[in-house]
Amino acid sequence: MDRMIYTALSGAKQILDQQAAVSNNLANVSTPAFRAQVNLYRAVPVVGPEAGTRAFTVASTPGADMRAGPLTYTGRTLDVALQGNGWLVVQAPDGTEAYTRAGALQVAQDGQVQTISGLPVMGDGGPLAVPPGSQVTIGTDGTITARGPGEASAGLAQVGRLRVVNPPNDAIARGDDGLFRLRPGAQPLEADPTVRVISGALEGSNVNPTEAMVEMIANARRFEMQMKMIQGADGNEQRANQLLSTN
């Protein structure tokens, strides 16, 4: 009976992990450019001298749903969204290169272009910066132009270009901080000039709240089934002990 308990226990554990991923997705339904977490598991047959009637449940490599979220037009010149599979390049707190599609940008007091969380946005030559107090516009090719206070339209100057990459979906993975990074062994990414930048718009989360709620209910039913299997195995064990104790 203990074999049945361990088999059901492995399934229950993976269902709890799946439920945690779905709950996290539902909590981020309003987070800009959030990619839904995909937590997979699979059955692995138990190899041994006995008949192959048992299988444990093990986790597969977690991933993310890379489908684009809906666009919301804000009219703010520093809000950008990316067409297709493009990603903005930012500098992570540890100095490494990371990728995001959250395009709510801002200009710090020193003129540095940052994400809303304060991460430096990278250009072709490094972190982007504009003259403090200037009016900034972003073109469809990612070109950033700035005009100083009081200057005429002839005073527009190109100060840099957003570094946008277009990696294969299996080449990047999400970190604990929500940023995506290259998987070990993946080739370094070059800027892709074909990715179009949409100024004045933000991408929303690609989490479907209705699907997430249905998945939570389904996971609860699966977990309940595993618990019934454990309870049934425990009841059988107790009855077997009673029979043995009467002899």
Automatic annotation (TrEMBL):
Domain Flagellar basal-body/hook protein C-terminal, chain residue ranges per copy: 199-243
Keyword terms of this UniProt record: Bacterial flagellum, Cell projection, Cilium, Flagellum
Entry similarity comment: Belongs to the flagella basal body rod proteins family.
Domain Flagellar hook protein FlgE/F/G-like D1: 81-146
Location (main, coarse): other
Protein name as catalogued: Flagellar basal-body rod protein FlgF
Localization, UniProt: Bacterial flagellum basal body
InterPro entries reported for this sequence: Flag_bb_rod_N (IPR001444), Flagellar_basal_body_rod_CS (IPR019776), Flagellar_FlgE/F/G (IPR020013), Flg_bb/hook_C_dom (IPR010930), FlgE/F/G-like (IPR037925), FlgF (IPR012836), LlgE_F_G-like_D1 (IPR053967)
GO CC aspect terms: bacterial-type flagellum basal body, rod
Subunit structure: The basal body constitutes a major portion of the flagellar organelle and consists of five rings (E,L,P,S, and M) mounted on a central rod. The rod consists of about 26 subunits of FlgG in the distal portion, and FlgB, FlgC and FlgF are thought to build up the proximal portion of the rod with about 6 subunits each.
Domain (Flagellar basal body rod protein N-terminal) ranges: 5-34
Entry-linked PANTHER family: FLAGELLAR BASAL-BODY ROD PROTEIN FLGF, FLAGELLAR PROTEIN
Keyword Zinc listed: no
Species in which this protein is naturally found: Cupriavidus necator (strain ATCC 17699 / DSM 428 / KCTC 22496 / NCIMB 10442 / H16 / Stanier 337) (Ralstonia eutropha)
